């Protein structure tokens, strides 16, 4: 099969990394693999394996006819069987189908606001889902939503997955400062990620611990939320902002505890990366987070900095628990959230469409 991953950009983010993981992993299974960015390239382009074919459309607006023609030609010239559209990129694939181009279209629903599905725009999705051949959902709530609200039958729930890492993958990068306790958070500056709760929890922790630091990674946007969080970060000591980074894993391996304080999630790739890097995990009880960590992490309620700080403190006061949880979570991630677990089921889904 010839499978093309379609994504708006290749800036670091959950959906973007999932698209990249699929494009790279399918090569091992004998597939002709393509990945296409519609609007922007981004730094993840450097992580695309040589054998995977990269395409860029340079789309300027929703109905960019030149980009649409380019996409149509890519599909026809490469005889693409399946277009796997991540996030909002599905609309451009639908336009191509309306023009008469023949391919099977899978929509991968990464919707991060799965705790607030009642706010989702249903009308346009319900209408255009007639052009979908299959839907992949990143958690069970989204799967049930597609079945019950979109009235779509061919829906599958698949775990996100990450590459299994080895010590040889670690690169010579260094977290800033020289504190004994290093906390880390990988989350783009979006309101859904609720950085303010994390920063308030960190301020509570600094009252009891002098040698503690917080390291923040992610993409910032030209909006009020990004500006407010950046200003708050700059006002605090021992809090470091790194922005977008290509090689997150090497930074994660230098930290002790990985944190997500989101008010809503699907299945956060950052959580899988924390586990692979053998971190102690503190995460809010949203989306698939509880199922991912099993017994090997600490869950907290949303928007509760006091509870979040207490959860971090449990690890600091119990190094054995931190070591036990982190070792077992890594083993769990390798077993349930690796390409060897997910890709065979994915390919079976694709073959049934074709």
Automatic annotation (TrEMBL):
Secretion signal, residue range per the UniProt entry: none
InterPro entries per record: Glyco_trans_1, Glyco_trans_4-like_N
Parts of the chain that traverse the membrane: none
Domain named Glycosyltransferase subfamily 4-like N-terminal: residues: 12-155
Name of one Pfam family that matches: Glyco_transf_4
GO molecular function, one term: glycosyltransferase activity
Domain Glycosyl transferase family: 169-328
Superkingdom: Bacteria
Keywords attached to this entry: Transferase
SUPFAM superfamilies to which the protein is assigned, alphabetical: UDP-Glycosyltransferase/glycogen phosphorylase
The name this protein goes by in its record: Glycosyltransferase
